[in-house]
Predict the 3D structure of the following.
Amino acid sequence: MDLQELPARDRATDLFVGTVPARSSQRALSTTVDASTVVAPAIVGVVLAVIGAPGAAAAAVLLAAAALVVWVALLARRGSSLGHAVASTRSVDVRTAAPAGRDLIGAAVGRRLRTTDLSRGRDPLSPLFAPYAFPEVNDRARRPSRFVRPATVRLDSGQTLSLADSLIIGRDPEAPADAPAATYEWPDLSRTLSKSHVRLEWDGEQVWAVDLGSLNGTAVRRGELSVPLVPFHRTPLPPDARLELGDRDLTVGLPT
């Protein structure tokens, strides 16, 4: 989806307000540091192979490969890396102001990555707007009537969950005593889900989502765009919303 295809109200929001583009010297420093973590052990491996130490050479090459994998994973999920940390920068997708994720290669080839200077401007991953302070409501008013049909949550692993009130999803979720909720333990071998990743709430008319400070974040999928949720901010979801939780995703459906 091209930015021009978005509704006017979405195009009017500058996701990079308050950010400052990184200087060329910062980008060069970041690239040098990241490249050295991969190239240095690779060169050592070549030297060891030449002098007749194949075992040590193989270990050095594996170390270089591991460094490359870690660099790509960090850049895809956090928009950062060792080089970015040294240079105080972050690289994000220009369409979403969020890490490129699985589309990292496409974003890099399509020149959609923007590197910002964290020392002189706003981190693009920080909240663009201050979270709205919802008015206090009594518990009876907040909870849906028992006669209201529950919403449904369809997981990418095939399960369908019932959302009658509040539900916390994660690898090993726990509901706080002051905000009770049902919990669902979602097995995740990729380890991209946090223990308590997201809280879903259904009030009979609207489904709300709250990212519980998860490591890999929660995003609402809109066509080809992923819009990240502000952690601990209660956000209304559109009908049949698709949420991305790390490398997992789910769809929330309203009762018909």
In short: Residues 24-50 form the longest helix (27 residues). Helices lie at 8-11, 24-50, 54-78, 82-87, 104-109, 139-142. The mean pLDDT is 84. The chain has six helices and 13 strands.
